[in-house]
Amino acid sequence: MNNNMNNGDSGGDGKLNYALIASMLGFAAVGFIKSNLFQIKIKDTKIKIQHQVLHSQNQKPEEKKVEHRLMERQWDYCSLLVRNAKLVELEKDLLVYTAKQSLLAGLEVEDGLRDIFKNDRTCAELRNTDKRKNGSLMWLYLKYWRLQLALQTHQKAEAAILNTQNKK
Asked: Which parts of the chain span the membrane according to its record (predicted)?
């Protein structure tokens, strides 16, 4: 008789055990799905940020070209042998180049260049052979433009991260 009672009790416990196991498996499955979705969102965000980093690295050659052209212009400005006509031509070419570059136009580089052309009169000594020693205002503008590019890159990355968080 005792055997029948134990079998009856264990049968009820079995149903309870199955219900607990099923609910725990359900919770585990939901947690697994959520964690996988979260990992997918993280990967998407990382990909967006990597694209923005690549875009910002592509900006550097344009920035370097402007720096090189400004150094050439300042070198010619400080040279005793260069005529004013060549200097004006260099300035026009630089203004046209920056106007064509959408990235540089957004930074208002043209206004800065006009300010440099008008006000930067700094030259190193006559025997100077280092082009980086000429000019002072142009170096301030170049540093400002680099900081603006970095700020724009960080703002785009922040917007990408916040955009993916808001979609949740």
From this structure: 16-33
Enumerate the H helices of the chain as residue ranges.
2-78, 84-100, 102-105, 109-119, 137-167
Can you tell me the distance from the alpha carbon of 152 to that of 130, in angstroms, rounded to the nearest whole number? 32
Sign of CA dihedral 99, 103, 107, 113: negative
Write the CB contacts of 69 (distance below 8 Å, at least 6 apart in sequence).
Answer: 90, 93, 94, 97
pLDDT tens digit sequence for 86-97: 889 999 999 998
Q: Is the pTM of this model over 0.85?
A: no
Q: Give the CA angle between residues 73, 76, 82 to the nearest 5°.
A: 140
Residue found by looking up tokens 């808001």 in the block: 166
What distance in Å separates the CA atoms of residue 10 and residue 17, rounded to the nearest whole number? 10
CB 142 within 8 A of CB 41: no
Distance of CA 135 to the CA centre of its chain: 29
Nearest to 140 by CA among 105, 110, 115, 106: 115
Contact 60, 75 (CB under 8 A): no
